[in-house]
């Protein structure tokens, strides 16, 4: 049995509550069986209660819908404002992220080697022709990592002198000079204005020099590309600038060479590479011509730009150059990521706004009170300027800069490079730095630790590092040492390449 009600007020059919319907069914059964029944007034009362329950439920549902819609609109407006303020950076970051995702869908490591030659338009015995290489160089650009456009040093210097807090001090200095111009009988305003200008200039210069020094050190880590490489062109092996490599070039790699581009291995003779610059793993990885994994980052027939060949020899076809390489995509993601303000800067900006509001409010208040007390306009102006300047914490900027600089120097003695002075305060809140392996934190330099000759194990300290006056356990004139040295030099395949001395 279905119970429903047609409301002329709402002009639609409405179903009554189940509890009321069940009650009506029970009443009907009792009546049919001759049992007790309710009077018409009781039925009307029950019906009225049911309708009131429905009205209350409708009102609650309507209120909840209104609140949900309002919250949805507020979130939508907030997201639109956020996207609008960061749209340019987000688009750049998304482009870099899309390039990184495209790398996972590449198939150059999976297809047959002959199909790869055909796709790249190259023959394994002749390589690319000089004309084709020149055309591809114009199409793909040089094999270098594009750097983010550097800000000129004078712009950085001006930025340090015109920060939020610096501007407040500059305004205070200007107000002091104005006060001295209005009333030259008191030279203290002139002296205070000069002191404020000197403080801002010195602290800004110290911050600029510290950040500039750290930036210069960090720039030395950007050079991943070797200066020269061996390539097959026009059927001949040539030594060319690695920046002139193009997709399709066939290159030769041997132990000690840095991989100049992302390549697919077509020949390997005990070739092993070090992927520490990409993964941090110090273990050497074998390279073979066959595909061993669907994932391009895991397969053994690819070598990546910036990694190092530690042993053996090999040949490969260049498949990616420049920013399209794995290391290039990592660099793009790092350079396009948004940099948030440090907690120290946020707190300073909030404090400066609060102080500025208080200072200006007090200055205006006493300026108006001066007219009430019948003082002249010039006297009131000088008094108001003095109050505003007095509320400016002139020594705060210098104190913070000096404290952060001293801390950065202490960290430098512990081999910690501080790129930004404001980061020192955040670093001070660090209680534990976790690393997955010690290989990530080493200098990536292999040195001899011990020698064994004449049946004895001897500690081998580096003479270049400790100097000629140190007391060494080994003797360079010993016959056993000389024999070991001659054997090591004869068997070693290492070469001295002065062009790599800066890497």
Amount of beta strand:
5-15%
Shape descriptor reads: extended
Number-wise, the strands total 11
Q: Mean pLDDT, as a whole number?
A: 75
How far do the termini sit from each other? 88 Å
Question: Roughly how much helix do the residues carry, as a percent range?
Answer: 40-55%
Q: State the helix count.
A: 16
SSE order in H/E notation?
EEHHHHHHHHEEEEHEEEHHHHHEEHH
Helical/strand content category? alpha+beta
Stretches where pLDDT is under 50 for at least 5 consecutive residues are 1-18, 28-36, 87-93
Largest sheet: 7 strands, antiparallel
Measured on Cα atoms, how large is the radius of gyration? 39 Å
Describe this structure in words.
By secondary structure, the protein is of the alpha+beta class. The chain contains 16 helices and eleven strands. The chain has helices spanning 18-32, 40-85, 87-104, 113-120, 130-140, 153-161, 164-182, 188-219, 276-279, 326-336, 343-372, 377-390, 394-413, 423-427, 463-466, 479-491; strands at 4-7, 12-15, 228-233, 236-241, 250-254, 262-274, 284-286, 302-303, 308-320, 450-453, 456-459. Helix 7 runs antiparallel to helix 12. The longest helix has 46 residues, at 40-85. Residues 1-18, 28-36 and 87-93 have low confidence and may be disordered.
Strand and helix map with partners:
Elements: E1 4-7, E2 12-15, H1 18-32, H2 40-85, H3 87-104, H4 113-120, H5 130-140, H6 153-161, H7 164-182, H8 188-219, E3 228-233, E4 236-241, E5 250-254, E6 262-274, H9 276-279, E7 284-286, E8 302-303, E9 308-320, H10 326-336, H11 343-372, H12 377-390, H13 394-413, H14 423-427, E10 450-453, E11 456-459, H15 463-466, H16 479-491
Antiparallel strand pairs: 1-2, 3-4, 3-5, 5-9, 6-7, 6-8, 6-9, 10-11
Helix pairs in contact: 3-10, 6-8, 7-8, 7-12, 8-13, 11-12
């Amino acid at each position: 049995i279905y119970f429903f009600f047609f409301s002329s007020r709402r002009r639609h059919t409405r179903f009554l509550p189940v509890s009321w319907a069940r009650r009506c069914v029970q009443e009907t059964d009792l009546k049919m069986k001759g049992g007790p029944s309710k009077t018409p007034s009781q039925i009307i009362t029950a019906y009225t209660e049911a309708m009131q329950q429905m009205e209350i439920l409708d009102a609650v549902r309507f209120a909840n819908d209104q609140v949900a819609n309002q919250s949805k609109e507020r979130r939508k407006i907030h997201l639109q404002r956020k996207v609008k303020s960061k749209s340019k950076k987000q688009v750049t970051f998304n482009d870099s992220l899309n390039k990184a995702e495209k790398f996972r869908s590449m198939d150059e490591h999976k297809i047959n080697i002959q199909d790869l030659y055909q796709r790249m338009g190259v023959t394994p015995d002749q390589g690319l022709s000089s004309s084709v290489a020149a055309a591809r160089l114009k199409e793909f650009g040089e094999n270098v990592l594009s750097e983010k456009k550097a800000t000129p040093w004078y712009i950085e210097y001006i930025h340090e002198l015109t920060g939020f807090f610096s501007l407040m001090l500059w305004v205070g200095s200007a107000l002091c000079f104005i006060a001295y111009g209005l009333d030259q009988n008191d030279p203290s305003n002139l002296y205070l204005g000069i002191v404020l200008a000197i403080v801002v200039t010195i602290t800004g210069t110290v911050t600029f020099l510290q950040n500039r020094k750290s930036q210069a050190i960090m720039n030395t880590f950007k050079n991943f590309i070797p200066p020269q490489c061996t390539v097959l062109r026009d059927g001949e092996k040539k030594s060319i600038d690695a920046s002139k490599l193009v997709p399709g070039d066939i290159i030769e790699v041997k132990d000690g060479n840095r991989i100049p581009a992302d390549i697919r291995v077509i020949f390997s003779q005990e070739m092993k590479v070090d992927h520490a610059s990409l993964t941090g793993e110090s273990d050497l990885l074998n390279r073979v011509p066959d595909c061993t994994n669907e994932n391009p980052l895991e397969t053994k027939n690819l070598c990546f730009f910036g990694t190092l060949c530690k042993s053996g020899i090999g040949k490969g076809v260049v498949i990616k150059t420049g920013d399209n390489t794995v290391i290039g995509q990592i660099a793009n993601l790092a350079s396009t990521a948004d940099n948030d303000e440090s907690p120290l800067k946020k707190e300073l900006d909030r404090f400066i706004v609060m102080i500025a509001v208080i200072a200006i409010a007090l200055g205006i208040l006493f300026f108006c009170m001066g007219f009430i007390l019948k003082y002249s306009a010039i006297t009131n102006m000088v008094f108001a300027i003095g109050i505003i300047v007095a509320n400016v914490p002139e020594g705060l900027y210098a104190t913070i800069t000096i404290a952060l600089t001293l801390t950065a120097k202490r960290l430098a003695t512990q081999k910690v490079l501080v790129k930004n002075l404001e980061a020192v305060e955040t670093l001070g809140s660090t209680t534990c730095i976790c690393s997955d392996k010690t290989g990530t934190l080493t200098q990536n330099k292999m040195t001899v630790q011990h020698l064994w000759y004449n049946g004895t194990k001897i500690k081998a300290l580096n003479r270049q590092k400790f100097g000629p006056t140190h007391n060494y356990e080994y003797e360079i004139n010993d016959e056993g040492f000389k024999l070991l040295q001659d054997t090591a030099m004869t068997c070693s395949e290492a070469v001295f390449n002065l062009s790599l001395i800066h890497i």
